[in-house]
Design brief:
Largest sheet: none
Structural class: mainly alpha
Number of domains: 3
Order of helices and strands: HHHHHHHHHHHHHHHHH
Oligomer: single chain
Number of helices: 17
CATH superfamily of the largest domain: MFS general substrate transporter like domains
Strand content: under 5%
Length: 478
């Protein structure tokens, strides 16, 4: 009996390892490709607009189809959809590395985004279905630590592979990891799906949510280059509003909706999603423009820039699982509030580094930011998933990840708009560094205000969820 219980306990952590493999690949591809772009441009003779689409194609399909991926995982099985996403993502990664021209590479990146959108919601859904509430925060903490590690070491890995081997290897590295993850998943992960009621595909919901999220994400990506008031961007925002309004209308009238809108009546679920959107809004733009500041203004190489973020990464990896354990015991409310306040302080510290800055000037902001990110991301994720029934874990995960992705796109767009307001000269001008730093600092203060507002939202809305199984266990223990 004890041996069987030990085997089941051990298998749960293998399950976490399997989904972490997949998550690592998805998050790594968010940042690893950026460093390799100049090398791709020279190798494939890619123009500036095509180069932009190498990044945009992945981001667009990832954000647009995540809600669909979450629903399909609940409907057909989370293990099945995770494996399907893994196979698509791994195959597309191989195709990216073998790409002979720009069109082929952009197409393969689009397919990569589809695989990521199918796989990503299933990772949290599998964790929620596998781990009981008393261990879920710890598991989500490890999940968040893997995510942060992949995002942060992406520039370093991309720089090393591009400079020392070839740009193709930023994609080839996914292939052995993906194959290993498939075999571990088949062995360790049990199937789970939504068995709460009769299930069927909600095609109007899938279509309207996809159109709305596509229009919003594309508008945010293109807003600064085309102009926020341009007819194209205004038209995309109008299409987004119309499609998402139609989505809400359809879902409120469907007998079996794609997204149960009653989830948002739970203040903890809504508050955790708003907090996740706001932390992504505050921090993703900072990650993007910090890299530009460190390389273009302070003069560090791509590898040095990637290495600079390691103190923040190590803190997140070390603290995120502990934050998960604390959220299991104490709830997520004050952890998120303290974490987002620390993020606000970190952003203000970044804004004190000027033209003559170096690593030691940046280190306090990196350390405070690492603690703040660890205390925010894990408890916010745990709070959102604890507020969702296990049967709806795939959709709940998809909503949370969509909030993060949209927040990140919005953050990059807002910081870019603030920078553009202050940078009035071309990059070749002697005045460019001073104007860039002024705009960068103003954008950091805006992001700090957003993070502080997110802390207030979390404290006001997030509460500890007591599950039926927890109450039963406590009764039996008494």
């Amino acid at each position: 009996m004890k041996a069987r219980l030990f085997a089941e306990e051990n298998r749960k952590w293998w399950t976490l390892g399997a989904v972490s493999f997949g998550l690592f690949m998805i998050m790594l591809d968010n940042t690893v490709v950026n460093v390799a772009l100049p090398s791709m441009q020279r190798s494939l003779h890619i123009g500036p607009s095509e180069l932009e689409w190498v990044v945009v194609a992945y981001a667009l399909t990832f954000a647009t189809l995540m809600l669909t991926g979450g629903k399909l995982a609940d409907l057909y099985g989370r293990r099945l959809l995770f494996i399907v996403g893994l196979v698509i993502f791994t195959g597309a990664s191989l195709a990216c590395g073998l790409a002979p021209n720009a069109g082929f590479l952009i197409g393969a990146r689009t397919v990569q985004g589809i695989g990521a959108a199918i796989m990503n919601p299933a990772t949290l859904g599998i964790i929620t279905a596998t781990f009981p509430p008393r261990q879920r925060g710890t598991a989500i903490g490890i999940w968040a630590g893997v995510s942060a590690m992949a995002l942060a070491i992406g520039p370093l890995v991309g720089g090393l592979l591009t400079e020392k081997v070839n740009w193709s290897w930023v994609f080839y590295i996914n292939v052995p990891v993906g194959i290993l993850a498939v075999f571990v998943t088949l062995w360790a992960v049990d199937e789970s799906r939504d068995t709460s009621e009769e299930q069927r595909l909600d095609l109007p919901g899938l279509l309207t949510s996809g159109i709305g999220l596509f229009a919003l994400t594309y508008a945010l990506i293109e807003a600064n280059s085309r102009g926020w008031g341009s007819p194209e961007i205004l038209g995309l925002f109008a299409l987004c509003v119309a499609a998402l309004a139609a989505f809400v209308l359809f879902e409120s009238r469907q007998r079996i909706p794609m997204l149960d809108l009653a989830l948002f009546r739970n203040p903890t679920f809504t508050g955790a999603n708003v907090a996740m959107l706001m932390v992504a809004l505050a921090m993703f733009g900072v990650f993007f423009y910090n890299s530009l500041f460190i390389q273009n203004i302070l003069g560090y190489s791509a590898i040095q820039t990637g290495a600079m973020f390691l103190p923040m990464t190590l803190l997140i990896i070390l603290i995120a699982p502990q934050a998960g354990r604390l959220s299991d015991r104490l709830g997520s409310r004050w952890l998120i509030g303290v974490g987002m306040t620390l993020l606000s302080v970190s952003l203000v510290l970044f804004a004190q580094v000027g033209l003559g800055g170096n690593f030691w000037n940046l280190l306090p902001a990196l350390l405070v930011g690492g603690v703040g990110m660890a205390l925010t991301m894990t408890p916010a994720t745990a709070a959102a998933m604890s507020a969702v029934a296990r049967d709806k874990a795939g959709v709940g995960s998809a909503v949370l990840n969509t909030s993060r992705q949209i927040g990140g796109s919005l953050g990059i767009a807002i910081m870019g708009a603030v920078l553009a307001h202050y940078v009035l000269v071309p990059r070749t001008s002697l005045a460019f560094p001073a104007e860039f730093v002024l705009g960068y600092h103003r954008a950091l203060y805006v992001a700090a205000g957003i993070a502080l507002a997110g802390a207030a939202v979390a404290v006001a809305t997030v509460r500890k969820t007591v599950h039926v199984e927890e109450s039963l266990a406590e009764s039996l223990a008494a």
